Amino acid sequence: MLVRIERDGTSLALVRLHVVDQRDREEIILTHFLKKYLPLIYQRDCGVNILSRDAPWDFALEIEGGENFNVEITSIADNKSLFELESAERELSSAKLNKKLSPHKIQKLDKLFPREEDENFSREENSFFEKQMITVSSLPPPAESYESLLSVAISAKASKRHGGKEETILVIDDQTTAFTSDEILSSLNNLQTVDPFKEIWIYVGYWGTLSGDGEYTLIKVRPIA
Cα(71)–Cα(26) distance, rounded to whole angstroms? Predict the structure, then answer.
């Protein structure tokens, strides 16, 4: 859970989907997206077969009784610091699940989480992993508008040389913390990008599992029905 402290001293708890493994996160997002998207398009339950993964799009899908299409997932955040923070937290969570740590992993954790000299990442001494930890950090206000973040993310994917963009749905994984729902919806009215994608959606995840359970919000960017 993230806590945002406003300038007037008030606090706001922000619940966001947190998944240690990035590939698992993408599969959760795909499952959530399809649970809403397929009934909306086909008005019935549809079987789905994943034809390929990261070749080159994140997912190539075969839909029972329907057309095939790709799904590409990309992320946006308030600033680079947020991505770095979440990456460091994933590294720590992953390390705590492993019984043995390589010297390279220990050095990496040392850089991400500086400790006192007498602390050690050794599992035998139980000095680090047995502790209850809270990661505390501060993030500057966003340097860009939500509209700008969307535009950059869409343009970056549109510039890729991969074929099949016209059959690809772009899902933007919203990991921002500073924008309200009203600001997000307002930004869509002014968004101006030229892109070749079949459709573009914004995904905001709150929690989820690989089985498809969870809470999330989906916002259609284009085409506008």
Answer: 10
